[in-house]
Amino acid sequence: MATLEDHRTRAFDFLTSDAPVGLEMASPASPTPRPFLHFVEEEAEEAAELIARLFELADSEDLGSVLDVVADVEHRELAKHALTVFITHHDKGRALQLPTYFERHPEALGAQAGAPPLLAADASGEQLLAWYREDAFQNEHHEHWHIVYPFQGIPTVTAGASSRIARASSSSPCTSKCWRATTPRGSRRVWSSLSL
After folding, report:
1. pTM over 0.85
2. What is the pLDDT of residues 79-95, one digit of tens each?
């Protein structure tokens, strides 16, 4: 029987590998893996189904079964996304360790390192957005957003989901017209510097 450390190693290796085994390619002539696109409805639905399957499987079996399922998925990038959502949101998944963005995408830092700085005065059109597309930390944040808030939602409500809802609800008093009202739950902070 595999240990938790074995499962962690296997998940880490899967999420950090670029191996084309079982990988659906962008085209037959291209060795580049087809990316997973969150906004393609069919892919988002397929990811949601896989995530739900991983949640159900983890509730009834061990982590090895979950890792077996993602290893058998043809679209490897979609499987990696589903596994990262599972690790982030499922209680058993949290026992696995999610590699950092830069461990999963080592090319992200390499793209910035070799490029000469581009000044806005020298850029035009598409080049004005190049900094955003190539900013590794911006891309890390964007990917993290899609993992924490998947397009199709999370299959089961977890304790983490209720705390995210609580954070969103706690900001709502700030949008009211009563700026001097105390914040709920015992906070005595008064916004005395603001006046209407």
Report:
1. no
2. 999 999 999 999 999 99
